[in-house]
Amino acid sequence: MTSNMSPGDVDPAVREELARLRDSIDNIDAAVVHMLAERFKCTQQVGHLKARHQLPPADPARESRQIARLRTLAENAKLDPAFAEKFLNFIIAEVIRHHESIAETAETAETADYTVNGAAPTAN
Q1: Environment class of 113 (CB within 10 Å of its CB; exposed 0-12, middle 13-18, buried 19+)
Q2: Cβ-Cβ contacts under 8 Å for 63 (sequence gap 6 or more)
Q3: Residue 100 host element (H or E)
Q4: Rounded to two decimals, what is the model's pTM?
Q5: For the chain, which terminal residue's Cβ has fewer other Cβ atoms within 10 angstroms, N or C?
């Protein structure tokens, strides 16, 4: 639409196609959000497992493999691999932040248990 056209000047068929495409985009956005929520549920479980076994929040080797894997998936899907990598790096940073928080909470709970009970905490 040019700057001198009002929305009412657009062909109704074009408006209908635009609305259909935007509905599809909205549905895809909803699916992406739900998939990310499921992914974060899994990574939260990983964070708790790592905290229980005193494993580091980050796993650079796995992260590198995941980035390479996602870049390949992106290329096959005709998506810019650099964009896919940036997106995954953003997610990984958030996951690590969660894992650090979980580990800190677990450490604080162990310290509190030690202080209250006067005995060394036991490994779970």
Answers
A1: middle
A2: 92
A3: helix 81-117
A4: 0.74
A5: C
Q: Are 84 and 90 in contact (CB under 8 A)?
A: no
Helix, strand, coil proportions of the chain in percent (round to 5)? 80, 0, 20
Q: Which long-range CB contacts under 8 A does 51-60 form with residues at least 24 apart?
A: 51/99, 51/102, 51/103, 51/105, 51/106, 51/107, 52/106, 52/123, 52/124, 57/96, 57/99, 57/100, 57/102, 57/103, 58/96, 58/99
Contact 51, 106 (CB under 8 A): yes
Angle between helices 60-76 and 81-117 (to 10 degrees): 150
Separation CA 48–CA 57 (nearest Å):
10
Residue type, 61: A
Give per-residue pLDDT as tens, 37-88: 999 999 999 999 999 999 999 999 999 999 999 999 999 999 999 999 999 9
* Token digits of residue 109: 């709970």
- Side chain identity at residue 107, one-letter code: E
